[in-house]
Amino acid sequence: MAQPALPKPSPAVQIPPFNAPRRSVPDHASPASTTAPTSAVSEPASGSSSEPAIESPAIQTPQPEPPAEAGPPVQTPAPPVGAAEYKDGTYLGWGYCRHGDIQASVAIENGRIASATIARCLTRYSCSWIEHLPGQVVARQSADVDYVSGATESSDAFYQAVADALSKAK
Predict the structure, then answer these.
(1) How many CB atoms lie within 10 A of CB 166?
(2) Residue 60 within any structural domain of the chain
(3) What's the pLDDT score for residue 85?
(4) Count: domains in the chain
């Protein structure tokens, strides 16, 4: 889908340095200029100032274009109810991190994840920090698990182990 064209940015506004002398007339409309500025110039009524007062032009903000009409959204067909996503059985997979290796065991029944466990924990830290992750695998029916603060790499290794086991079950 093509994206709508963005409006062109307005020219950059020049900001004088902090210690610059203040001027009552902008640079583009100096009295020495031989051409009239694009904005309207009006003479002061009282004549108290030798420089003409300049009215600033109205600033117009570009309005965004409405999004182009697209056809109906494309829907991917859902697998038929009862279709097996995975082959039944128990599968083992390995995950690795710099602290060691984790092996996960995933049991598939009727094409769905029935259980997941940490089969082996060969890390230098206790796997008790990630012992609740196998329940997330069953609840979510995927390898996607939350990271555990303080055990991020072990969480990632467990994810890899479950993903490896599920790849064998396809």
Answers:
(1) 22
(2) no
(3) 85
(4) 1
